[in-house]
Specification:
Number of strands: 4
Structural class: alpha+beta
Distance between the termini: 67 Å
Strand content: 15-25%
Number of domains: 2
Order of helices and strands: EEEEHHH
Number of helices: 3
Oligomer: single chain
Largest sheet: 4 strands, antiparallel
Helix content: 40-55%
């Protein structure tokens, strides 16, 4: 007796019957080269999983910005991301002096 094959499509994988992992690529980490992804676990059918994938795509689009955004808006967005890295340990962290230097150069 063979078990039913679990469902899989772009960004959606059924991990067990009726439970789907929705994973959407955001960007690639410049320090490590690893992909950064948003992920959600969804119970229900494929229709609900596709809705969640669409929601994640929209969130990423809003976070990354519009394709026609100005250089100033892009630099402001980059500084906001740098600010979130302040005082984090390891390679993903950023020291206050480095952030201050970035801020000064952008302004």
């Amino acid at each position: 007796m063979q078990a039913d094959k679990l469902y899989q499509e772009r960004s959606i994988k059924e991990v067990e019957n009726g439970v789907f992992r929705v994973r959407v690529f955001k960007y690639r980490d410049l320090l490590t080269g690893h992909p950064i992804q948003s992920e959600r676990i969804v119970r229900g059918g494929t229709h609900r999983a596709r809705e969640v994938r669409s929601e994640l795509d929209s969130e990423i689009h809003r976070a990354v910005g519009e394709p026609d955004m100005t250089a100033r808006a892009l630099l402001d967005l980059w500084l906001q991301n740098c600010e979130r890295r302040l005082d984090k340990p390891g390679r993903s962290g950023l020291e206050q002096n480095t952030y201050n230097s970035y801020d000064l150069q952008v302004r």
